[in-house]
Design brief:
The structure is a homodimer. Helices cover about 35% and strands about 15% of the residues of chain A. Chain A has twelve helices and nine strands. Chain A has a seven-stranded mixed β-sheet with strand order 5-4-3-6-7-9-8, sandwiched between helices. In chain A, strands 1-2 form a two-stranded antiparallel ribbon. In chain A, α1 crosses α2 and α2 crosses α3. Chain A is globular, with a radius of gyration of 21 Å. The model of chain A has no long low-confidence stretch (mean pLDDT about 95). Chains A and B meet through α2, α7, α11 and β8 of A and α2, α7, α11 and β8 of B.
C-alpha cells in the first residue's frame, strides 16, 4: 500500500521517492497541519512533499480543512495506526538551536552584527536569494573559528552574501583578509559602506556573476571559502567548483549550505561523488538544519507556492539547510569553466526561486 | 618553514600531513599542555600528532616540562606570533555537549539506562573496544528517533555493543525489533540477561564475528543498522559493508562512528568514495565529536601510548568520533564477503587498539 503511494507520488511530482518519505509525511501530519512544516519535517524537495500530500488527499487519507490546514481523515488515521507510524518528535537543543555551537557565545559580536544590519537589503527573487537568520550567520563564523578556519586566514565568500556571512567574518576582526563577491550590487555596496565607515581595511566586496570564470588573481589565493549555492548541478559547479578553485593549497577549507528542500538525497549523492572524486576534497562535516532561513517576501511568486496543495502562509520558519565543511586534499581540482544560463536556479527538484 | 615541519613530521609519523595540521597543533599548545588534548584539538591520528610534537621538540620549538606537559619554548612562541596563530577556541554548547540534541530530553530513559548498566562489562583490548559515555549512547538513540529511524523499525546493531547502543534502543521500547550481534560474549550475555529480566521480547543478542559473512536470514531484513567500526579499510567493509547488506530496501538507514584520531582525512575521503560509489548510499549527516569515549583501561598497552611523546595519563576525555548517517539509494550494494585477519584493527594511522 505505502510503496504504491510512493510510486504514484513519484510520478505526480517528478521527484524520486521511497517508502520512508511517505512515512515521514504521515509522521509530520500527526503533529502539524501546516504544509511547509511537513516539508521541513520530511526533509523532502517541495515537489516531492506536495505530491505525497496530494496523493494522500486523492486516496481519502487526508483532507484540507476550512483554515487550509492539512489533516488526516479517519481512514488516514487507521492507516497510520496499522503501519505503526508515530508522531514526529523534535529533540532539538533549545540552547544552541541544534547547531552544537551557541550563537550567543560572543554576545558583543552578535549585538554589533544585529545593529549594523538592521537596514540590510531584503532578499529578492532575481538571484534566488533567501537570507538565513542572524543567529545562523553568527553561528557560521563561530563554527569556522572553532575549526581554526578564521584567525589569520584569507577568506573568500562567493555568491552567498544575502546571508551577510562575509560581513560577519569581517566584523569578527580575526581574519587576515576577506573578499566578498556577489552578483547583487545592493549587497556589495552595503558591505563596502560598513567596511569604510568602521575603518575595516582588510575586507572588500565586489560585484561578480559566478556564471563567469573567476579572474586569475582570485584563483589559488585563499585559505577558506564560504558559499551557499542553488541546488542545481550547474550552480553547484559554479559556486563550489569555483570555490575550491580559489584555494591556495592542500588543507584549504570550504563551507557551504546544501538543502534537502530543493534537492533530493539522490542529488546529494551526486554532489558527494563529485566532491570526493572529481574535485578531490574530503567532507568533514554535514550538520543538518544548521542554516535556518527567514521566509522570503516573494514566497507567493515561487514554483513552490504554485505546487503547494494549499495556499496558506507558512506558520513558522520552514526552510533549512545543512552546513557542509570540506577539506582540499593533495591533487584537488581547480575548476573554472564558463557556465550557461539554463537551469541555473531551477530544475525538477528545486522550486523556491 | 611550516611546510617543511609538516614534511618532516609526515616522514617521521608515516601519516600524510599538511600545513594546517601543524597550525592546529600549535594552536592547541597555546591552551593545553596535555598531549591527548592536543590530539583531540588537532583532529589528527595519534601517529601524526605525535610526530608533529616530536619534530617541534627536535627543532627547539617545544619542550617537555617537569610534569610531562608539552609547552612551547620562547622560539616556539615567537614562531606562533610570526605566523599569527591564536589559541584554540572551543564554543561547544554546554547544554547538549555539541551534539545538537540534549541527552536529558527523556530523563526517565537516561536514568533507567544508567541504573541498568552500572555493572556493564569493561572495555577490553582484544576487540578494539572503547565505550562511549552513557550520554553519548542515549543521544544516539534520540538522534535516530528524531529522524524517524526508531519507531516501529527493525534495527540491527553490528559489532558495536561495547557502547550498549543496542541495549539502549531496546530500552527505549519503540523499535519493532532489535538484534544485537557482537564478537564479545560478555556483552551478549549482559544484554540478553537484561532483556529477559525486563521481559523485553522484541530484542535479542547473539555472538558473531564480523569477519565472517552474515547468515542469510540477516541479509536484507532490517530498516536501520548501527555500527562503530575500527578505521581500517578491511574493518570498514566488514562493519559498514555488512551493515548495508542487512538493509531490506531503498531508504534503509545506517548509523556509525568514524574518528579522525585513528584515521586521517585522506582515509575519510576513501571511505566517502566507497560509500557513495561502490555501496550506493548517500551521506546525510556527519556530526563531529558526537561520540565521546571514556579512556580505556588498556590505554598504556596501546601503540598510541608507545608513540606518545610523553607518558602521562590523559587529563580528560580526549577520544571522540563523528556520527555518520547514510541512506541506501536504489541499486545499493549488499556486500558480504569473508575477510582475513590481517590489518583488521591496526594500520599506519590507527593506534588505539
Amino acid at each position: 500500500m505505502i510503496a504504491e503511494l510512493a510510486q504514484r507520488a513519484q510520478e505526480l511530482g517528478g521527484v524520486k521517492l521511497y517508502k520512508r518519505n511517505i512515512e515521514r509525511v504521515l509522521s509530520g501530519l500527526l503533529v502539524s497541519d501546516d504544509f511547509w512544516t511537513i516539508v521541513d519535517i520530511s526533509d523532502l524537495p517541495v515537489p516531492g512533499a506536495s505530491a505525497i500530500v496530494k496523493v494522500l488527499i486523492e486516496e481519502g487519507l487526508a483532507f484540507v480543512d476550512s483554515s487550509d490546514g492539512i489533516r488526516l481523515t479517519q481512514k488516514g488515521l487507521d492507516l497510520v495506526k496499522e503501519l505503526g507510524i508515530e508522531p514526529h518528535f523534535d529533540y532539538t537543543c533549545q540552547a544552541c538551536e541544534g547547531r552544537g555551537i551557541p550563537f550567543y557565545a560572543k554576545p558583543e559580536f552578535y549585538r554589533e552584527f544585529l545593529q549594523l544590519t538592521k537596514e540590510r537589503p531584503k532578499a529578492i527573487r532575481d538571484y534566488d536569494q533567501g537570507s538565513v537568520t542572524p543567529e545562523t550567520t553568527i553561528s557560521r563564523v563561530l563554527f569556522m573559528d572553532a575549526r581554526g578556519d578564521v584567525r589569520n586566514k584569507n577568506i573568500i565568500v562567493l555568491g552567498a552574501e544575502d546571508d551577510l556571512t562575509g560581513l560577519a567574518i569581517a566584523l569578527f576582526r580575526k581574519a587576515r583578509s576577506v573578499l566578498v563577491i556577489d552578483i547583487d550590487k545592493r549587497l556589495i555596496d552595503f558591505d563596502n559602506e560598513i567596511f569604510r565607515s568602521l575603518g575595516i581595511e582588510n575586507a572588500r566586496a565586489m560585484v561578480w556573476d559566478l556564471r563567469n570564470p573567476l579572474p586569475k588573481e582570485i584563483l589559488g589565493s585563499y585559505d577558506v571559502f564560504v558559499s551557499d549555492p542553488p541546488e542545481t548541478l550547474p550552480a553547484f559547479r559554479a559556486f563550489i567548483g569555483r570555490g575550491i578553485a580559489t584555494l591556495r593549497q592542500d588543507g584549504g577549507v570550504g563551507y557551504f549550505g546544501l538543502t534537502l528542500r530543493d534537492s533530493s538525497v539522490f542529488r546529494w549523492r551526486d554532489f558527494q561523488v563529485s566532491l570526493t572524486t572529481e574535485f578531490g576534497v574530503a567532507i568533514t562535516d554535514i550538520v543538518q538544519d544548521f542554516n535556518i532561513y527567514e521566509t522570503w517576501d516573494y514566497h507567493k511568486e515561487t514554483k513552490a507556492w504554485e505546487l503547494a496543495p494549499v495556499k496558506r502562509d507558512p506558520q513558522s520558519t520552514w526552510y533549512r539547510s545543512a552546513w557542509y565543511r570540506v577539506e582540499a586534499l593533495p591533487g584537488f581540482k581547480r575548476w573554472n569553466e564558463p557556465i550557461g544560463d539554463d537551469v541555473f536556479y531551477l530544475d525538477e527538484e528545486g522550486s523556491t526561486t
